[in-house]
């Protein structure tokens, strides 16, 4: 009498299916793989000359880019990192009485009342120091007076929006010391 096999048929087909899937994937990837054999002699010399010209053009572009990067590197290396060599600082002060903005030029007080005044001031600064970048430093009053108001500060920053600007607030960093128990003073 014939007996059925003890082992299941799936034990044979599962590895077989895996091998078939692997072979199918290799078949799908074959067009993307280039042969490493030497190029055939059937190619025209025009195609070779065109590819050589394209390679020469790429080499020239990369050499130009290298030259630009070298020039930038030399400029960065020769440029001084000291702020006084790079910036022409214009110091402006805020009046503690009314919050107006002013500076001193040639020993005279010059009040800045509008954006036109600020542009004239910065134009003079650029003429005086043409090789440096203008920088605006606004000093808050050294006494607590309630000025400048936030609207005034916003207006001043808007007037000098095209230039780097810094605000010197003398009382913002002062903290009262904490009185902790156990500290001997």
What does this structure look like?
It is a single chain. The protein has 185 residues and is of the alpha/beta class. The protein has a domain at 83-105 and 112-164. Helix content is 44%, strand content 16%. It has helices spanning 10-29, 45-78, 83-86, 115-128, 150-159; strands at residues 87-94, 101-105, 108-112, 133-139, 165-168. Strand 4, helix 5 and strand 5 form a beta-alpha-beta unit. The chain is elongated.
Topology:
Blueprint: H1 10-29, H2 45-78, H3 83-86, E1 87-94, E2 101-105, E3 108-112, H4 115-128, E4 133-139, H5 150-159, E5 165-168
Parallel strand pairs: 1-4, 4-5
Antiparallel strand pairs: 1-2, 2-3
Number of strands: 5
Number of helices: 5
Poorly predicted segments: none
Q: Over the alpha carbons, how many angstroms does the gyration radius reach?
A: 38 Å
Strand content: 15-25%
Give the averaged pLDDT, no decimals. Answer: 81
**Strand order, largest beta sheet:** 3-2-1-4-5
By secondary-structure content and strand pairing, the structural class works out as alpha/beta
Features:
single chain, about 180 residues, alpha/beta, five-stranded mixed sheet, 5 helices, 5 strands, elongated
In short:
This protein is of the alpha/beta class. The chain has helices at 10-29, 45-78, 83-86, 115-128, 150-159, and strands at residues 87-94, 101-105, 108-112, 133-139, 165-168.
